[in-house]
Amino acid sequence: MKKLVLFTMLLFGSFMAANAQKFALIDMEYILKNIPAYERANEQLNQISKKWQSEVETLAKDAQTMYKNYQSESVFLSEEQKTKKEEEIVNKEREAAELRRTYFGPEGELFKKRESLLSPIQDEIYNAVKEIAEQKTYSLVIDRASASDIIFASPRIDISNDVLAKLGYSN
Predict the structure, then answer these.
(1) Which residue stretches of the chain are H helix?
(2) N or C: fewer beta carbons within 10 Å in the chain?
(3) What's residue 39's pLDDT?
(4) Domain for residue 1, yes or no?
(5) pLDDT tens track for 29-51
(6) Mean pLDDT rounded to a whole number for the chain
(7) 96 Cβ partners below 8 Å, 6+ apart?
(8) Is there a contact between 125 and 163 (Cβ–Cβ < 8 Å)?
């Protein structure tokens, strides 16, 4: 009887060990910082963003200037002229808001530009991680940069440098 229980436990233990899952970690921030194309894309996005922000601010300042001029001149204007000036100011403010939405809105130009510049890099990283995971039979690969619940992880399971090497950026 003891031999049967012992044999069953050994069989069960070896079965569990055979089905053990392997995990790995990557640090996406570390990987991206070591890819020059990503840094160039980020710099390009920053320059575009600054340029567009300047355009929006210029329109907003124009509207503000128009409003200040209107306040100082309103005493001398007829009701018809006041209405016309008010409409011009509102239209200028609306134009600035529309330009801001066009450039920086959820589906704006900056979003589209970011997608076009960064998606190919992210796809390359994803494919490299996928290949490594399949080669080394990892069941799960977690990004430690976005997984805030990880308190400690052994550096032995971090495959960030393997991903960089697979992409041709040895570290």
Answers:
(1) 2-18, 28-33, 36-73, 79-104, 109-135, 160-167
(2) N
(3) 93
(4) no
(5) 999 999 999 999 999 999 999 99
(6) 86
(7) 56, 59, 60, 62, 63
(8) yes
